[in-house]
């Protein structure tokens, strides 16, 4: 049951995150939507390969501690993702505020 639940959670959550990344990237670069979507999808594929490869290496190197190392690696990747998302959110809010201020100044 845990394996099936974990698979379903990962499957559906990953698709939603990928769609959010694509939407935000297209919002940031509206003139290059096709290129941005391609870059996001290629980055997703490369990240998927690298994460699985690193998890395999950690399992092989760690022996009985392998699953613990994979879990710590997962936590580190998640933390980096959260920090990057927060940075992007702050940057976009700042950019929108600057744009709004520039529009107000023109009036």
Give the topology, please.
Elements: H1 2-28, H2 33-62, H3 66-106
Helix pairs in contact: 1-2, 2-3
How does this structure look, described?
With 107 residues, the chain is mainly α. 92% of the residues lie in helices and 0% in strands. The chain is built from 3 helices and no strands. It has helices at 2-28, 33-62, 66-106. Helix 1 (2-28) packs antiparallel against helix 2 and helix 2 runs antiparallel to helix 3 (66-106). The longest helix has 41 residues, at 66-106. It is elongated, with a radius of gyration of 19 Å. The mean pLDDT is 86.
- What is the string of helix and strand elements? HHH
The description of the largest β-sheet is: none
Number of strands: 0
Radius of gyration: 19 Å
The fraction of residues assigned to DSSP E strands is under 5%
Structural class by helix and strand composition: mainly alpha
Terminus-to-terminus distance: 61 Å
Quick overview:
The protein is mostly helical.
């Amino acid at each position: 049951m845990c394996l099936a639940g974990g698979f379903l959670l990962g499957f559906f959550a990953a698709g939603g995150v990928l769609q959010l990344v694509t939407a935000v990237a297209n919002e940031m670069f509206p003139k290059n939507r096709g290129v941005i979507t391609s870059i996001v999808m290629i980055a997703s594929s490369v990240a998927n390969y690298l994460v699985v490869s690193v998890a395999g290496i950690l399992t092989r190197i760690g022996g009985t501690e392998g699953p613990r190392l994979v879990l710590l690696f997962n936590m580190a990747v998640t933390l980096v993702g959260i920090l990057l998302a927060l940075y992007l959110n702050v940057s976009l809010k700042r950019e929108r505020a600057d744009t709004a201020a520039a529009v107000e100044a023109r009036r």
